[in-house]
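User: I'll paste a sequence; please echo it back and then give the predicted structure.

Assistant: Echoing your sequence first, then the prediction.
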Amino acid sequence: MSEKNREGKRSARERLAVEREKQKAAEKRRRTLIVGAAVVCVLGLAAVIGVAAANSGDDSSGDTSSGPAVAPKGAVGDDKLAIPVGQDTAKSTLTIWEDFRCPACKAFETNYRTVLHEMADTGKVQIQYHLVTLIDGNLGGTGSLRAGNAAACAQDAGKFRDYHDVLYENQPEETDDAYAKNDKLIELAGKVDGLVTDTFTSCVNDGTHDSWVQKTNKKFQDDKISATPTVILNGKTLDLNSLTPDKLKQQVEDAAK
């Protein structure tokens, strides 16, 4: 491998590490505020589990905590809380916990997208995405929830992966809750051929899968997962600070032997 390639991979790992440290620092600040004021603890918890109302595209709000958790089509796993990408016959499962507002998740997806697509398309691994609302809980807002619902609506249309990638490619700054706007999410859906239909638009605006995203986030908390992205291969949590796309591919291939 050339020195240039080694430097590039090292830089990618460093960027991912920096983003994860920023996210941990934000969580630490939130915990400090909660210790200092009991009322923040209550409000913070409500935001994390998604009890707070979500903003619609026209800035109106509605109750997203009511109603049953409606899983998107094809959801898998316990309580159908994961969206699968790849073949059911794949020998390995890569579980990824992500938040569409999370900068570290964007860094991971940007650096690993090619190898993830390749492994899923060739049947080496099935990726199971869990969509959570960690940043909504840390910083306030509803962009994680709204984007998670929209992605689940895209899954209903059979276009989850393409829309998932579009959301990360166009991710706003972490403190900019742009994804709280349904109009913005529908606008970005226009980048995916055939996704914007009356059915998709209604699904986004109605918050069809809001309770499902909230339930997934509750599972995230119950399992004591502390950061996004968290990546698990066949039950083993991977160390993203030392991982590279080539190493991930090799681990998946070794697991299939």
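The longest strand covers residues 92-98. DSSP finds ten helices and seven strands in the chain.
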